[in-house]
Amino acid sequence: MTFTVLARDTRHGLIGAATASRSLAVGASVIAVDPAVGVAASQAWTNRALRGRLLAAMREGRTAAEAVASVPSWDEGYALRQVAALAWTSPGAARSGEAITAWAGHSTTTDAVFAGNLLTGPEVLEAMSAAWVRSSGDLAGRLIEVLRAGDLAGGDARGRQSAAVLVASPADTLLDLRVDDHDEPLAELGRLHRLSAAPQEVPGTVR
After folding, report:
1. Is residue 56 part of a domain?
2. Strand duo 2-9 + 112-117: pairing
3. For the chain, what is the domain count?
4. Is residue 163 part of a domain?
5. What's the pLDDT tens digit per position in 82-137?
6. How far is CA 78 from CA 50, 87, 110, 153, 195, in A?
7. Which one of 58, 118, 131, 197 counts the least CB within 10 Å of its CB?
8. Residue 203 lies in a domain
9. In what order do the strands lie in the sheet with 162-168?
10. Which Pfam families is this protein grouped with (predicted)?
11. Cα–Cα distance measured from residue 197 to residue 177, given in angstroms and rounded to the nearest whole number
12. pTM of the predicted protein model
């Protein structure tokens, strides 16, 4: 019921995640970040606790692939879950449970992971991957561009409602923007991103 991208910008030392869905407040339930470790996502019939388990496993030294492979041992409902993880180093990974709602799937590139379920078809993830390759600029903007590409390719088969983006450095979460309920959540997320990047006035100054 959601499509998500996890990605890292090795040039600028940043990592992030972005997600969009026809569900309410997708940012609160799907993506998570630990600046010292990386990013993770849990979606479909979402088990929110899996995000913390994935990040904790990577914090203990397991790769994203090893963390994702552990999901069936953590959760009896693993067939209904779709999870993804990406650390600061090594390839990212994802798992799509056998019982989640079609169309569902995932893919990975050198520095990114794409996952979605209840999509209009595989063209959504294909468009997201292509958008990541051609995108430029700051990481948050690139992640939002990837979501837009997925949405234009069909996105969530039920429609649109919410979207979110997270960006972190190794020391801190730098950006956490959420659109919980909106007719055009990606347009609103883009507006919030532009607002966050605009110079801020210092209180008490006169122009």
Report:
1. yes
2. antiparallel
3. 1
4. yes
5. 999 999 999 999 999 999 989 999 999 989 999 999 999 999 999 999 999 999 99
6. 10, 22, 26, 28, 39
7. 197
8. no
9. 105-109, 112-117, 2-9, 14-21, 162-168, 173-179
10. DUF1028
11. 12
12. 0.93
